[in-house]
User: Fold this.
Amino acid sequence: MHRKKILCSLLFASLSLSAFAQNRNVARAEQYLQSNDLDKARDEINPATTDEKTGNKAKTWYVKGEIYAAIAKSDKFKSLVQEPNDTAVEAFKKCLEIDPKYTGILLKGYKDLTDIYAAYYKVGADAFNNKDYKTAYTAFKNVKTLNDYLYGLNVGVGTKLDTMAVLNMSNAAYNGDNQDAAIPGYQQLADIKYKEAFVYRVLLQYYRLHNDEDKYMKVLATAKELFPDDQDIANDEISYYNSTGKTGELLKKLEQRVQQNPNDYDMVLNLAITYDNMANPKDTATGEAAPRPANYDELFNKAVETYKKAISMKPDDYSGNFNLGLMYYNAAASVGREIGQLGSSKEDEAKQEELLKKQNGFLDDAQPYLEKTYSILDAKDKLTSNELAIYKNTLSGLQGVYARKNQMDKYNDLKQKLDSADSKLEQ
Assistant:
């Protein structure tokens, strides 16, 4: 009996010594961290996290998080381990899981975590710029995951939806030819009506490809609300209805809406764009002009009439002015292509004279609307990417008009504007 008591005492002593040794590891790890001996700090802390005693203590994991966060920021030691920031994040999470009120994390851990957030973002941006889209996607996904975690702690850190992280993550996936990974993020942005037309174009294309009519129509409704003058979105809608044999249904809907809301500028403009795009269809695969419909003249005239109605409602909005000016200009270009196909016979010479007169008429019609668009956008100090594209197209169109009329002073003025146009892009 006495011998058993001695043996039992020895066992308890052994356990106490083991726990003491691991506690001592944590203390030494902290000391090495403070002296920036990060390799030694790592070697001390790792055994402590796997010990059954110290592995269940918040402080152990907090210290590990600090050590690996420091390694990630150290040029000397960051090659010690792969992805030290990932290890640091998991350590901080474990610490809070054990003790949500842990004072050290509240005071300093968030600083480490926000530094890691910035580091992930830099990795993603650098990789994206270097066209390493797989690495960029992973990094921006880490940004989103960390933001979501911080926001979930409900301590005033992070945001409900990190829109830039989601956008960058999705853009990386899209550019890396992984549309399936890009779509969830783009849909999240569409759900909050994020104003970036490219997001909606990708979603519309994807849902059409996958025959998801319900999602397609929901995204389309939001896209048309946010970008009523976006021709790509309008073209996609018409193409969709054409592919389903429902073009007449689309037109009927739009006409009914305008009848019910004749003073709704966006609806009137959308109807005008629809007439325009139906009159001037494009091949969705190539973006080139497709054959005109049999009722081209009717659709063209309806587009003109409806554009003019929209412009009368908002004469200082560039959308209606630009679209009508562009339609006239493209009509002139189409006539120019006809002229280019003529021969040298007397009949062709007579036809050429007739077509030149028609072309000049379209250019005369285009000029005031393009000039109005130019005056509106040129007066702005900064332009969105969409506005900048319209501004450049307007400048190019007006150059064509002025060159045709031999107004070279105006042509040269616009050339200077076009050369410096990118400086107007808002950052």
